[in-house]
Structures are given as structure tokens and as C-alpha cells.
Amino acid sequence: MASIARSLRAARPATFSRFVQTPVARSNWQSPSIRAFSVTPSREIRKYTKDHEWVDLNADKTSGVIGISSYAAEELGDVVYVELPEADKTVQAGDAIGAVESVKSAADINAPISCRVTDVNLVLEEKPGQINAVPEDDSHGGGWICKVAVDEQGVQDFENLMSAEEYKAFTGADH
């Protein structure tokens, strides 16, 4: 047993490197070249409004996804109906783009930033409860509301929104 553990330790590198040696295809093979891999996260940037909407922007801040926060979904209770925004509609920050109704209440969904709606989550028409199940999931089958195209004004609006940490402090919640 001890010898297996020693051989595993000996086979494991002491440190991990961002570099991987890969041979380069050449007619007369020489020493391997080194290829660097990017460690830059491709995760979108998410911010929140005081009205409990969130928006994710892609890295170049030209498009994004809008939804309601987990905190809002929990406070609303079981969502029974979602009014989706119109596709290709241009809106300003704060404009109502849709609504959500639950067994407890109803609330408008406001645009967190100036943008143009490019796509809506049609899954919510048949399964409005997806908002309760996965409110901050922007993948297929998630509880997102719409996808948007963003211009310079939208980017400026985005900069004024709350980070996840600020939103958590604002709601006093563990979301």
C-alpha cells in the first residue's frame, strides 16, 4: 500500500502549469512548442436592480439576458402566468416589458437597462413555474425572460446597477 501511495505522489506534478507541451507537425520534427491556454473566464457579468430584475451581459457588452431574481421568485410564491415582452421591441431602462402573476400577487417586469428585445423565453408560456424552479438560469429551459441587444446607453445603465454582493446586502437575503 505504501509503495502505491509513493508512486502516485511521484507521478503527480508538484505544481500545475497553464502551459501544455504539444508537438508541432513539421517535416523534420524538432523540440515541442509550448502553447498557452487562456484562463480568462467567459462567464457573463450579472447585475441587479432594486426592482429585483437581473441582467447578464456578454463579455463585449453587446447582448444579454434579463430575468427576475431568486429573491423575487421566492417572495412571489408559485408563478402561474408570465406576460412576455414583444420581440424586436426597443425599451428604456425602467420600462415595463412584461408581468408575472403568482398565487400571492402580480408584478411588472421592468427593463433593467435600455435595450432591444431579440428573443423571449417561450417555455414560460406553458411552464410559468420555471421562474420558481430556476429564476436565474439563462440556459434553455431556465427561468430567464428575454434576450436583448445592448447599445451604449444600455452599457451606461448597466454600470449603475448593483453587483451580486450589493444586491444581497440590499435584500438581506442569502441569494
TrEMBL record:
Annotated Gene Ontology cellular components are: glycine cleavage complex; mitochondrion
Q: Which family does it belong to?
A: Belongs to the GcvH family.
- Report the PANTHER family cross-referenced here: GLYCINE CLEAVAGE SYSTEM H PROTEIN, GLYCINE CLEAVAGE SYSTEM H PROTEIN-RELATED
User: PTM N6-lipoyllysine: at which residues?
Assistant: 104
Cross-referenced HAMAP family: GcvH (MF_00272)
Report what the protein is called: Glycine cleavage system H protein
Report whether Chaperone shows up as a keyword of the record.
no
